[in-house]
């Protein structure tokens, strides 16, 4: 079969590789009809995530048709249409029983890579390095789905791939990011990052009743998409994020802050001017990551910082004293996808949510290597890329 494989930093290739086979009795094999490139894939593309090996198959956002089921899988049958959450969960361990699916205790059969700082606690993830189980991903014609009697979401007829594909990751990720803010009707919510995750976090915050949402980015198309949904937008390249947020909130700071950027904030060149005025140490002004630091400074006391953005390794130069003294609550993690899928699927069926608006590019799987670059560089107004094997 054809699959997008990692060959090193900024080197994704469309290779011919062996078809997957059933390896455990609960497995299923899915023929992929649509898959997508995620901001999290860019961390692998950029070489930020340890534990990748040459030839690893990429991709954790995919859906398709079941073509084979293992003998112990009583839930799926050949021909079923499924979206497969990126967090692989067994459904039976202590964490799965609590609904903490993204930290399933059984699905991550990782190698011991000795990287304590990256965190070994996640569930197995598709296409996401040997730190998270080394499971081949779904940017491919076929994929083996472990624990396929638990993880996949069955899709009713009548919904298009585009309507449901994002149930596997970015829709529940934006949703969880907003839910864990415990949004109140008087809340002003600030969201850093207007990529696909930020777009869904914005719409989720509005659906959950936020009074006002402010979205921060520098990409004009992404800011325009956020503004069209009703957000106030800040271009962090041309404006001081902290000053604008203080202005908008009459000096109080946003009640809730959501980081939909993650590791990319390491690469951002923006420095805000707040620290000068507050006569903070120069090192606080110049060191990374910007987003977490801005959130800790600007969030209103007793507010919530919700961090779906992916981080790894050691982060320093965070004003943790501000977070502590303001009594901030920090909530973060890979998304417990299966916790949200039933509800979100119902909302899609009811026409309350249509996630397809983020798709700007639909291409063949073979175009994947070029599309990684287009998505990373935000060329051609790119917000979300969907790839279709056989297009
Ligand atoms: P993306 O790369 O398309 O979007 C990130 C956006 O952040 C870009 O538009 C970029 O311009 C903007 N940005 C960069 N630096 C910024 C700064 N200093 N201030 C404000 N905006 C800034 O990625 P995405 O697909 O939207 O994903 C966003 C994040 O969510 C990534 O870190 C991804 O790994 C993570 N993610 C987490 C989960 C989870 O389960 N927790 C799931 C999916 C994605
Ligand atoms: Zn993802
Ligand atoms: Zn489990």
TrEMBL record:
The keyword Transcription regulation does not apply. It is an enzyme of class 1 (oxidoreductase). It comes from the Bacteria. Its EC number is 1.1.1.-. Its cofactor is Zn(2+). Gene3D superfamilies: Medium-chain alcohol dehydrogenases, catalytic domain, NAD(P)-binding Rossmann-like Domain. Keywords: Metal-binding, Zinc. Residues 196-268 form the Alcohol dehydrogenase-like C-terminal domain. Residues 25-153 form the Alcohol dehydrogenase-like N-terminal domain. InterPro entries: ADH-like_C, ADH-like_N, GroES-like_sf, NAD(P)-bd_dom_sf. One of its GO terms (molecular function) is metal ion binding. This is Zinc-dependent alcohol dehydrogenase. It comes from Derxia gummosa DSM 723.
